[in-house]
Specification:
Blueprint (H helix, E strand, L loop, with lengths): L3 E7 L2 E12 L2 E8 L9 H16 L4 E6 L4 H4 L4 E2 L11 E6 L3 H4 L10
């Protein structure tokens, strides 16, 4: 699966990065979110994720964004994502989260959510 890498940098110093997957039909996945350990808790990942969300939401009519949280989901809830209910989660070790206007479709159907990406 191909995606587009986004990076946040300052004076050529990598602050945070992520990959955005376009699944078609106005659906996107955000994955591989990473910030160097010494630079964490400074808002870099939040700024990068927010910028990518802003870009997608301004280019598309009704986008739906997914991500799999391997950290505390509250981090992403602060960015407008919500957890899918436990009964539609595909995996136990990670939490699928969603943001978008077409969210109802995904809240009740495990098959509608993307596999881990």
């Amino acid at each position: 699966m191909k995606g587009t890498w986004y990076v946040l940098e300052n004076k050529s110093k990598l602050l945070s990065s992520l990959i955005l997957y376009d699944f078609g039909s106005e659906q996107f996945g955000i994955g591989s979110i990473a910030t160097p350990q010494l630079l964490r808790k400074q808002g870099h990942a939040s700024r990068l994720i927010s910028a990518v969300i802003f870009e997608i939401e301004n280019k598309h009519q009704r986008p739906t964004l997914f991500l799999y949280s391997d950290i505390e989901p509250e981090f992403y809830e602060n960015l407008g994502f919500q957890r899918l209910p436990a009964d539609v989660q595909r995996y136990k070790a990670t939490t699928c989260m969603i943001r978008g206007s077409a969210i109802q479709k995904f809240l009740s159907d495990k098959r509608a959510t993307p596999e881990y990406f």
